[in-house]
Specification:
Blueprint (H helix, E strand, L loop, with lengths): L13 H4 L2 H17 L3 H17 L8 H21 L3 H6 L4 E6 L2 E4 H26 L3 H10 L4 H30 L10 H32 L18 H22 L11
Antiparallel strand pairs: 1-2
Length: 276
Amino acid sequence: MSRFMLAYIDRPSPVHAVSGAVKLVVFILWSVLAMAGYDTRVMAVLVVMGLSLFAVSGTKLREVSFIFKMLVVFMALNLIAIYIFAPEQGVEIYGTKHLILKGIGRYSLTWEQLFYEFNIFLKYCTIVPIAILLIVTTHPSEFASSLNRIGVNYSIAYAVSLALRYIPDVQRDYQNISQAQQARGIELSRKVSWVKRLRGSARILLPLVLSSLERIDAVSHAMELRSFGKYKKRTWYSSRPFSRMDAAVLAVSLVLFGFGMWFTFRDGSRFFNPFI
């Protein structure tokens, strides 16, 4: 598989063995815990656990390196934007002001602002590995059947399955269109400036959107011809029964989620303040 692809990778690992529905519930609990508070200690533990699960799954970093690089760029832009539009947000949150570097007007560098933005960075580091892990370790069909088993309408479950299947198709189309554009003389390599590369990449969007709409139209017609959605229930080829491992993972996740929420809000605030 290309290193640019974000899709299911079949490997014999404990993470792959867990039901897709259980992994989705764990991801939701994980995300709520990470986003609800700003306790650095809780998020640091989640980062370590997430990276450990990533290693246990057998997923190699080079297989998702492109996605990580894109997310690092996005995180950097987001952190810069936070400082530009709210340079004293950390001072307002923590109630103190320890200067590192005196600036112009309100644009001074403080330890409080750095700590606040570090927590934002930790939130990304907490959620991103688990989100990628959910995609690369869960077969789309098995994931849809698991959702239907826990009560989600099979039309919605099937839509989720199609979305997961569609991610690598869009990435593959982007690469094919990019190579076709370069064959016509549009340079997209590092030989030209990033501005020209950005303009060249923008020219890929229109054919990518048109090819995506064409594929969506073909799939929708095929489903309609097969009377998809006519009946209230359906069977699944990739259905997987809940196992003891699924029950154990779900129970442990609920306990850790409850403890994490209690630890975050035990003093009445969702912010961990080391400046007091």
